[in-house]
Amino acid sequence: MPSSDSGGYVSLSEGANVYKSTTEPTKSLSVVETVKKAIENAFNSNEIEISNFSACNARDQKEIKTISKTTSIRMPSAPSHTAESTRLLGTMPAELDDIELRSVQLQQSHSRDSISNACDVHCISTDKGDIAVAVQGDLSKPAILTFHDLGLNYASTFTGFFNYPTMRAMLENFCVFHVTAPGQEENAPTFPENFIYPTMDELASQLLFVMSHFGLKSIIGFGIGAGANILVRFAMNNPDKVGALCLVNCSSTQAGWIEWGYQSLNSRNLRAKGMTQGVLDYLMWHHFGRNPEERNLDLVQMYKSYFERSVNPINLAMFIDSYVKRTDMNIARTPTATLKMPVLNITGSLSPHIDDTVTFNGRLDPSKTNWMKISDCGLVLEEQPGKLAQAFRLFLQGEGYAVGALQKLSREPTIETIN
After folding, report:
1. pTM for the full predicted model
2. Contact 190/312 with Cβ under 8 angstroms?
3. Which segments of the chain have a pLDDT < 70?
């Protein structure tokens, strides 16, 4: 490179043009020459694009057509295989070998009707009317008695949970008795206006008729919401007939003013207008908490459809009246005023009933009680059935029941427990 006497660089002469013009034409071309050059470039790259053909005049279009005819067009040939690709293709078998599938197991149906088909429904007469009890399992096995929440029945509440693989395995060692509150069956007939719906204490006393009908000496209670309240009342009055309790979103106090106001309005609307949007929104909040659509839209739509189509509004209004008029259970953490059997007290981290379960836990014997809050759910049975089934199995195993082989436990910190 040329350099100056002082050791620095010197500029090139004006005549030595280092950079050649590559993007701008040295002279202006006519329309025909421009199109001809574009066609030649397009053929060389196997593409052709003439965007301003329509803008040319008739004479230019004629010349362009003549150029197109005289220009030889070569179609691109198929890519030739290299030596490496030929060698790889040669190693492939001419015919695929047969593959034998092993260890394929059929699973039971998870449909919403599967639990109904697996149960024998009995109509049992009591002093306050007839109640429906669905029996699932062998009658000679230990008994689990379930009770549902507001707006639901045994099938809509426990289908998803008892169809879970862990719970299906447990049914080999237990017999489940699903109790449905009066008039809460799907498409149930409407009660007459003069029908007096049983109170919460009377609903609890009806369980004595169920145990007498099937010859049960002791049960394991499994209740949700209003059903949990009923089972606690039954256990307080009959401690020798209850071996253990698993309760979800249980309230042990009477209804507050806000709950009383909302539920009274819901009952009035159900009697006068049926299932209104306000009642539907309250039921969804009661079961799922706030913003359930953000967690599981399909599950929310299924429950909304069930409330709108399968619930008898008059009968539900009577059940709501009975629940909102519930009395305090008068449970205290003393040897004579608390539950004497082991209790598994469960709620969801997004449930609106967390405070109720905490209050209930403070009234129980800490040596016989476990309080659990399962994360990322409001309706525990539907949104986290695996974690609830795992906790229920361990709870029963701790009480000496045979629950079969336990599955590998999850190590995720998703369950909060207070003993």
Report:
1. 0.71
2. yes
3. 1-32, 35, 40-117, 402-419
